[in-house]
Amino acid sequence: GAVVSQHPSWVICKSGTSVKIECRSLDFQATTMFWYRQFPKQSLMLMATSNEGSKATYEQGVEKDKFLINHASLTLSTLTVTSAHPEDSSFYICSANSAGGGNRPYNEQFFGPGTRLTVL
Amino acid sequence: GIQVEQSPPDLILQEGANSTLRCNFSDSVNNLQWFHQNPWGQLINLFYIPSGTKQNGRLSATTVATERYSLLYISSSQTTDSGVYFCAVGLSTSGTYKYIFGTGTRLKVLA
User: Fold this and answer.
1) What is the Cα–Cα distance from A57 to A92, expressed in whole angstroms?
2) Which of B86, B97, B8 has its CA nearest to residue B42?
3) How many Å apart are CA B50 and CA B92, to the nearest integer?
4) How is residue A104 annotated by DSSP?
5) pLDDT in 10s for each residue of chain B, 111 residues
Protein backbone atom coordinates (compact mmCIF):
# COMPACT_ATOMS: atom_id res chain seq x y z
CA GLY A 1 0.00 0.00 0.00
CA ALA A 2 0.91 3.67 -0.12
CA VAL A 3 3.15 4.87 2.69
CA VAL A 4 3.05 8.30 4.27
CA SER A 5 5.59 9.28 6.91
CA GLN A 6 5.28 12.08 9.42
CA HIS A 7 8.03 13.54 11.56
CA PRO A 8 8.36 14.04 14.46
CA SER A 9 5.95 11.55 16.02
CA TRP A 10 5.79 13.59 19.20
CA VAL A 11 7.15 16.93 20.37
CA ILE A 12 7.11 18.86 23.62
CA CYS A 13 7.93 22.54 23.45
CA LYS A 14 7.74 25.72 25.49
CA SER A 15 5.07 28.30 24.93
CA GLY A 16 6.08 30.85 22.29
CA THR A 17 8.29 28.55 20.22
CA SER A 18 7.54 27.37 16.68
CA VAL A 19 7.25 23.72 15.70
CA LYS A 20 7.62 22.27 12.20
CA ILE A 21 5.99 18.97 11.23
CA GLU A 22 6.93 17.17 8.02
CA CYS A 23 4.70 14.92 5.95
CA ARG A 24 6.14 12.80 3.14
CA SER A 25 4.58 10.39 0.67
CA LEU A 26 7.28 7.74 0.33
CA ASP A 27 6.26 5.63 -2.62
CA PHE A 28 3.83 7.75 -4.60
CA GLN A 29 3.34 11.30 -5.75
CA ALA A 30 0.60 13.21 -4.01
CA THR A 31 -1.34 15.80 -5.94
CA THR A 32 -2.79 17.08 -2.71
CA MET A 33 -1.92 16.76 0.96
CA PHE A 34 -4.18 17.53 3.88
CA TRP A 35 -3.60 18.54 7.48
CA TYR A 36 -5.98 17.51 10.24
CA ARG A 37 -6.21 18.13 13.94
CA GLN A 38 -7.73 15.69 16.41
CA PHE A 39 -8.62 16.31 20.03
CA PRO A 40 -9.00 13.38 22.46
CA LYS A 41 -12.06 11.22 21.76
CA GLN A 42 -13.11 13.43 18.85
CA SER A 43 -13.15 13.12 15.10
CA LEU A 44 -10.58 14.54 12.70
CA MET A 45 -11.02 18.19 11.83
CA LEU A 46 -9.67 19.31 8.46
CA MET A 47 -7.39 22.33 8.88
CA ALA A 48 -6.13 22.95 5.37
CA THR A 49 -5.61 21.53 1.90
CA SER A 50 -2.12 21.77 0.47
CA ASN A 51 -1.35 21.65 -3.26
CA GLU A 52 2.18 21.46 -4.60
CA GLY A 53 3.47 24.81 -5.76
CA SER A 54 0.46 26.84 -4.66
CA LYS A 55 -0.91 28.41 -1.52
CA ALA A 56 -2.77 26.23 0.92
CA THR A 57 -6.54 26.48 1.26
CA TYR A 58 -7.52 26.88 4.91
CA GLU A 59 -10.80 25.83 6.45
CA GLN A 60 -12.98 28.42 8.10
CA GLY A 61 -11.75 29.32 11.56
CA VAL A 62 -8.17 28.14 11.01
CA GLU A 63 -5.62 30.94 11.35
CA LYS A 64 -3.31 30.88 8.33
CA ASP A 65 -0.67 32.98 10.09
CA LYS A 66 -0.68 30.56 12.99
CA PHE A 67 -0.50 27.36 10.98
CA LEU A 68 1.89 27.88 8.07
CA ILE A 69 1.76 25.26 5.36
CA ASN A 70 4.35 24.76 2.64
CA HIS A 71 4.08 22.17 -0.12
CA ALA A 72 7.52 22.18 -1.69
CA SER A 73 7.24 19.10 -3.87
CA LEU A 74 4.86 16.31 -4.87
CA THR A 75 6.10 14.26 -1.92
CA LEU A 76 6.60 16.79 0.90
CA SER A 77 4.34 19.14 2.84
CA THR A 78 5.19 20.90 6.10
CA LEU A 79 3.04 22.42 8.82
CA THR A 80 4.61 25.01 11.10
CA VAL A 81 2.78 25.92 14.28
CA THR A 82 4.06 29.43 15.00
CA SER A 83 4.34 30.85 18.50
CA ALA A 84 2.72 27.77 19.97
CA HIS A 85 0.57 28.04 23.07
CA PRO A 86 -0.91 25.34 25.33
CA GLU A 87 -4.23 25.49 23.47
CA ASP A 88 -2.37 24.34 20.33
CA SER A 89 -1.58 21.04 22.04
CA SER A 90 -3.22 18.35 19.95
CA PHE A 91 -2.70 15.37 17.64
CA TYR A 92 -1.85 16.58 14.14
CA ILE A 93 -2.27 14.16 11.23
CA CYS A 94 -1.39 14.58 7.59
CA SER A 95 -2.70 12.68 4.61
CA ALA A 96 -1.79 12.46 0.95
CA ASN A 97 -4.10 11.92 -1.99
CA SER A 98 -3.13 9.42 -4.62
CA ALA A 99 -2.88 10.78 -8.15
CA GLY A 100 -4.20 7.45 -9.39
CA GLY A 101 -2.63 4.87 -11.65
CA GLY A 102 -1.68 1.27 -11.05
CA ASN A 103 -4.01 -0.25 -8.49
CA ARG A 104 -4.73 2.99 -6.69
CA PRO A 105 -7.91 4.92 -7.41
CA TYR A 106 -7.69 8.63 -7.96
CA ASN A 107 -8.07 10.68 -4.79
CA GLU A 108 -7.73 7.81 -2.34
CA GLN A 109 -6.38 9.25 0.89
CA PHE A 110 -3.48 7.73 2.87
CA PHE A 111 -2.51 8.87 6.34
CA GLY A 112 0.70 9.50 8.21
CA PRO A 113 1.08 8.18 11.77
CA GLY A 114 0.42 11.58 13.35
CA THR A 115 2.35 14.01 15.56
CA ARG A 116 1.43 14.54 19.18
CA LEU A 117 2.22 18.16 20.14
CA THR A 118 2.35 19.24 23.76
CA VAL A 119 2.98 22.90 24.50
CA LEU A 120 4.00 23.69 28.07
CA GLY B 1 -21.73 22.49 4.98
CA ILE B 2 -22.19 18.77 4.65
CA GLN B 3 -22.96 16.75 7.77
CA VAL B 4 -21.53 13.25 8.22
CA GLU B 5 -23.07 11.27 11.05
CA GLN B 6 -22.07 7.82 12.20
CA SER B 7 -24.01 5.38 14.33
CA PRO B 8 -23.81 3.95 16.85
CA PRO B 9 -21.30 6.25 18.58
CA ASP B 10 -20.16 3.44 20.87
CA LEU B 11 -20.38 -0.32 20.54
CA ILE B 12 -19.28 -3.17 22.79
CA LEU B 13 -19.21 -6.68 21.37
CA GLN B 14 -18.26 -10.10 22.55
CA GLU B 15 -15.56 -11.73 20.47
CA GLY B 16 -17.12 -13.62 17.56
CA ALA B 17 -20.14 -11.35 17.21
CA ASN B 18 -21.12 -9.50 14.03
CA SER B 19 -21.86 -5.78 13.74
CA THR B 20 -23.00 -3.12 11.30
CA LEU B 21 -21.74 0.46 11.43
CA ARG B 22 -23.57 3.19 9.57
CA CYS B 23 -22.47 6.44 7.94
CA ASN B 24 -25.08 8.98 6.81
CA PHE B 25 -24.20 12.08 4.82
CA SER B 26 -26.38 15.07 4.08
CA ASP B 27 -25.37 15.89 0.50
CA SER B 28 -23.99 14.32 -2.68
CA VAL B 29 -20.36 13.24 -2.48
CA ASN B 30 -17.68 12.22 -4.97
CA ASN B 31 -16.41 9.29 -2.96
CA LEU B 32 -16.25 7.70 0.47
CA GLN B 33 -13.60 5.93 2.50
CA TRP B 34 -13.73 3.84 5.68
CA PHE B 35 -10.84 3.92 8.15
CA HIS B 36 -9.90 2.18 11.38
CA GLN B 37 -7.96 4.27 13.88
CA ASN B 38 -5.87 2.05 16.12
CA PRO B 39 -5.01 2.86 19.76
CA TRP B 40 -1.80 4.61 18.64
CA GLY B 41 -3.70 7.00 16.41
CA GLN B 42 -2.76 5.55 13.03
CA LEU B 43 -5.56 5.55 10.47
CA ILE B 44 -5.70 2.39 8.41
CA ASN B 45 -7.49 2.32 5.08
CA LEU B 46 -10.29 -0.21 5.00
CA PHE B 47 -12.32 0.63 1.90
CA TYR B 48 -12.43 3.17 -0.89
CA ILE B 49 -16.08 2.80 -1.84
CA PRO B 50 -17.92 5.61 -3.66
CA SER B 51 -20.68 3.14 -4.54
CA GLY B 52 -21.48 -0.56 -4.55
CA THR B 53 -20.20 -3.34 -2.31
CA LYS B 54 -16.70 -4.54 -1.50
CA GLN B 55 -15.38 -7.28 0.73
CA ASN B 56 -12.01 -7.82 2.34
CA GLY B 57 -11.82 -10.84 4.63
CA ARG B 58 -14.17 -10.40 7.58
CA LEU B 59 -15.00 -6.85 6.58
CA SER B 60 -17.34 -5.66 3.89
CA ALA B 61 -18.83 -2.31 2.97
CA THR B 62 -21.75 -1.04 0.95
CA THR B 63 -22.38 2.50 -0.22
CA VAL B 64 -25.74 3.60 -1.62
CA ALA B 65 -24.82 7.05 -2.89
CA THR B 66 -28.31 7.91 -4.10
CA GLU B 67 -29.64 7.40 -0.57
CA ARG B 68 -26.60 9.02 1.06
CA TYR B 69 -25.41 6.27 3.35
CA SER B 70 -22.73 3.66 3.70
CA LEU B 71 -22.52 0.56 5.87
CA LEU B 72 -19.49 -1.26 7.25
CA TYR B 73 -20.00 -4.88 8.27
CA ILE B 74 -17.67 -6.64 10.67
CA SER B 75 -18.16 -10.39 11.00
CA SER B 76 -16.69 -12.71 13.63
CA SER B 77 -15.20 -9.78 15.49
CA GLN B 78 -11.81 -10.10 17.19
CA THR B 79 -10.23 -8.10 19.99
CA THR B 80 -7.85 -6.57 17.44
CA ASP B 81 -10.88 -4.96 15.75
CA SER B 82 -11.17 -2.60 18.73
CA GLY B 83 -10.62 1.08 18.01
CA VAL B 84 -12.47 3.87 16.29
CA TYR B 85 -14.02 3.53 12.85
CA PHE B 86 -14.44 6.61 10.70
CA CYS B 87 -16.08 7.20 7.37
CA ALA B 88 -14.87 10.17 5.34
CA VAL B 89 -16.65 11.66 2.34
CA GLY B 90 -14.76 13.23 -0.55
CA LEU B 91 -16.04 16.51 -1.98
CA SER B 92 -15.00 18.63 -4.91
CA THR B 93 -15.88 22.25 -4.15
CA SER B 94 -14.68 25.54 -5.63
CA GLY B 95 -11.84 23.87 -7.49
CA THR B 96 -10.46 22.03 -4.46
CA TYR B 97 -10.90 18.47 -3.30
CA LYS B 98 -11.24 17.56 0.35
CA TYR B 99 -12.50 14.94 2.77
CA ILE B 100 -14.89 15.51 5.66
CA PHE B 101 -14.81 12.97 8.47
CA GLY B 102 -17.77 11.44 10.20
CA THR B 103 -18.32 11.49 13.93
CA GLY B 104 -16.85 8.01 14.42
CA THR B 105 -17.90 4.73 16.05
CA ARG B 106 -15.84 3.58 19.02
CA LEU B 107 -15.75 -0.22 19.06
CA LYS B 108 -14.59 -2.42 21.92
CA VAL B 109 -14.43 -6.17 21.42
CA LEU B 110 -14.25 -8.24 24.59
CA ALA B 111 -12.43 -11.56 24.81
Assistant:
1) 17
2) B86
3) 13
4) B
5) 899 999 999 999 999 999 999 999 999 999 999 999 998 999 999 999 999 999 999 999 999 999 999 999 999 999 999 999 999 999 987 777 889 999 999 999 999
Phi, psi of A68 (to 5 degrees): -85, 130
42-101 of A, contacting B, C-beta below 8 A:
42-46, 49, 51, 57, 91, 93, 95, 97
Query: Is A7 part of the contact surface with chain B (CB cutoff 8 Å)?
Result: no
- Distance from the A58 Cα atom to the nearest Cα atom in chain B, whole angstroms: 11
User: What SS3 class is residue B57?
Assistant: coil
Whether B86 and A43 lie within 8 Å, measured CB to CB = yes
Cross-strand partners of B24: B5, B69
Q: How deeply is A56 buried, as exposed, middle or buried, from its count of CB atoms within 10 A (0-12, 13-18, 19+)?
A: buried
SS3 B51: coil
Whether A91 and B86 lie within 8 Å, measured CB to CB:
no
Phi/psi of residue B79, nearest 5 degrees: -60, -30
